[in-house]
Every structure is written in C-alpha cells, then in structure tokens.
UniProtKB/TrEMBL annotation:
Full protein name: MEI1 protein
Top-level taxon: Eukaryota
Example GO biological process: meiosis I
Amino acid sequence: LLFPVSNLCGRCRPRDTDLLQPSLNFLYWSLHQTTPCSQQRAVAVLLSNVSLLELLQKVLECTWLRSPPSQPAYLSSEDALLCSGWLLVASLLLYQHRYNTEVHQTLSLDLTEVLNAIIFRKKKPVLLLVSIMQFLRAALQQNFSSSLLVIIGQSAAQGSTQPQPPSLQDAALHPLAMWQVFSLVVSLQNLLVHKDVLLSQAVVACLETLVEYLYVKNQDVALHVASQPWHRFLLFTLLNGGQKSFLQPEVLRLMTLFLRYQSSNIISQKEISQILREAAEANLAELPETTSHALHLFLRQV
C-alpha cells in the first residue's frame, strides 16, 4: 500500500486536506508500526518518491504562509495536515540517518522560519507546536546535517532583526545564532508554564536535545544556557506546592538536565534530598510509566 498511497500524495496539492490528512497519517504509522526490516524498506520507498517529498516541502512551508486561526485551541483541517507533515518529515529524518537510505530529493527549510514558528506562536494549536518541536529535535540530533534536509541558516527577510553581527559563538553554533538560542529557550520556558501534559513532554525533550547540541558545539555556551537563573523560577512555578510535586515527569527531567550540566545554582542538595524523600515514600508500582522512567533517569544521574 505504500506505493499507491505515496504516489497519490505526490499528485495532491497542500489544499487537498481531506485526502492528504489520512494519507500522511497512514505513511507515518507505516514507518512506526512495523518490524525493523519492513521499516527500512518503507523508508526507502518514501525517500525515493520525489513527488511526495516535493509535496511535503510545500506542506511545511504553509506553516508560516497561512494566517493563524482565530481560536488557538481549535485544530483546523489545515493545522491537522501541518501536524502530519511535520511528524512525517521528523520520522523520515531519523530513519534516513539510522538506515543511511539514499535520498532522491532534498527538503530545503529556513531555520529562522522554523524557530519563529515556536518563538512567535501566533495562536498555534498545541499539537502543531509539538509537531514542529519534534522536527526540530530530529534536526538537532543530526546537527542539521542530514542528507534529506538542507537548512538555510538565516533568512534574508529576517536579517534586519538580528540584534548583532555574527560572532565567534555564532560561528561555533552554526546554523544557530546565540540570540536565536536564547529566544528559543525563553519561549520553551514560557510554554512549560502552561502545564499541558503533551506540550510539557515535548518542551522538556526539546530543551534536552538543544542543550546536548550546544554542548557538542560549545561547552561554555551549553553550561551558560543550563545555568540561567530563570530556570529556578520556572521550577518553582511548576512545583506550585502540591503534594509529591517533585515527582512530576517534567520536573524530574528538568532536574536531571540541570544535574547533568552541573547547574548548582538551579538545583541544590535540598531539592535532591526532597526528591529522594518523596520517592522513598511513594508507591513506586503505582507511579505512571512516564514518571517512573523520569525518576529512573534522575537517580542514575545522581
């Protein structure tokens, strides 16, 4: 079925949402719900379909070309299609790298536009933000060097908004710039305050991947970002004094991140002791899987 469905997608236009939406979802799940051997073949089929990749390019570009909806919580058919497009491309990025699959058509994306889609949210639905962050994580994990993806570092239209000329740090972080990193971090922190479960999971995962990327590029920058005082205020906001509040997955993962990068001004011995005390008092068998996994990672980091 991959052949006819992917060929059908390639004949569509981005506005053919009724047909594209289920088709892209089918392609996405065909990649994820299959055996490793079949997965490798599925990736090869999709990446050899030039018309499909050209269609995906047009779909992703609609993210910043269309007007934001009047109701931010409402997921329109156009937004749903964008979600499917971003998630499918994120998966193709990861699996193309895993299997070293030949690519017959590259996707070209302006990094400034991708970041602005998160930084300047403009009433975007939660699921669309999560989908774009999933793509950004995939690109960061591959240092923006996938053979499927061509990243344009700075948009000419956005050049005038850059507060300062490129520095040595900017060169080390290429294609990211320092001001983009800090804008993205602040935006992710603001999204965490919304306390939406799906959004929180995506935000923390994106923060983890971003700091890992920075650490490879420039350790000083990564440590500087991880030790920003605003992180501590963010933790207090997330904790909100509730019982067993330290045993929230996003809090545990943030604590683990700050421990990993030795941000002693963000997490102290007092917080570590509090988490250990709450974990000792909790019924571990009754903890949700996400909490249990996050606690396991935290204890290993300690």
